[in-house]
Amino acid sequence: MLPYGRQSVDGSDVAAVVEALRSDWLTTGPRVTRFERDLQAVAGAPCVTVSNGTAALHTAYAAAGIGPGDEVVTTPMTFVTTAATAAMLGATVVFADVEDDTANLDPAAAEAAVTSRTRAVTAVDYAGHPAEYDQLRKVADSAGAVLIADAAHAVGSAYRGRPVGALADLTTFSFFPTKNLTTGEGGAVASTDPALLERARTFRTVGLVRDPARLRHPDEGGWHQEVHEFGLNYRLPDVLCALGSAQLRRLADFKASRARLAARYDELLADVPGLRLPARRAWADPMRHLYPVRVLGGRRREVYERMRAAGIGVQVNYLPAYRHPVFEDLGYRRGLCPVAEAFYAEQLSLPLFADLTDTDQDRVVDTLRTVLGS
């Protein structure tokens, strides 16, 4: 089965991990600091690493002080954790509809969803295409809310010449194997606000405070540390950060490969009837995590099943988040965001990863043409 996504691991990655395994540090050590510094150069803002992308979202919401009584406005066209981690902190999730072409959070819909209880507006860079951050910044600022970017798909992408990690108050990344770079599991939170970043760093380290200037009882002894607010152990270990730094050295090549493959799909599929290709706005410099087409005429399920039967691992990204039973049980209903519902009904992700060969891509295209033409 040709997968829709796959990690790219070469000898330099393996060597970096082996070196870490032979060192004195397996968990938090010097490679964590190095990876955070290396990632900052790409993200455009200081970073705190965490154990996975879900942990990054949970940490960002905690750093922003999200809790019971607060509302978080976000998109339904995302993996469920964008919303679930806010709900787990006691917030009410308010879903706003998406733009028809990019499937990103629609600033006008977000503005209409804001209330006096809104504490955060969370965008998602769907498939690697940045959301409309200048407009969303105005929405968040007018509400007195933090702007959060779920850039799990978008490390390496840029918006109007600015890297995605420097656009929101808090930005989260994921380094799952199918993402643009991998640490196996892993994630990060970026912020240009030192106070928010320190809150994120403390939360991901069980809430521990070691800075003598912040201790309530500084005379306890040299071993002393305190927890002022509850946190969790979301630390990313040295051995995985070693892999992350090695992957970052290849990120430009990954981006070039994904861009070439996406352009090749654009060319090879341009004349296929019953198919709508993904949009790219002129100001966007996306690092394509997904290549999401739309299958028209109510044939998405048929095409999905026939492509899979042919050994091509297409995927659907995503069920609108409020349609998961956990949100249905909270009273959310189908039809809440019509544009997102229409997008979901047609969406299909074709295989896209840095090491995808032209031969395998031709196979995807030929099979899709055959299925749609019959």
From TrEMBL:
Biological-process GO terms, alphabetical: polysaccharide biosynthetic process
InterPro entries for this protein: DegT/StrS_aminotransferase (IPR000653), PyrdxlP-dep_Trfase (IPR015424), PyrdxlP-dep_Trfase_major (IPR015421), PyrdxlP-dep_Trfase_small (IPR015422)
Superkingdom, natural source: Bacteria
Keyword Endoplasmic reticulum: no
UniProt-annotated catalytic positions: K179
Cofactor field: pyridoxal 5'-phosphate
Keywords: Pyridoxal phosphate
Gene3D superfamilies linked: Aspartate Aminotransferase, domain 1, Type I PLP-dependent aspartate aminotransferase-like (Major domain)
Modified residues (N6-(pyridoxal phosphate)lysine): K179
MF GO annotations: pyridoxal phosphate binding; transaminase activity
Family in the record: Belongs to the DegT/DnrJ/EryC1 family.
PANTHER family tied to this protein: DTDP-4-AMINO-4,6-DIDEOXYGALACTOSE TRANSAMINASE, TRANSAMINASE
UniProt-recorded name of the protein: dTDP-4-amino-4,6-dideoxygalactose transaminase
UniProt lineage: Bacteria, Bacillati, Actinomycetota, Actinomycetes, Micromonosporales
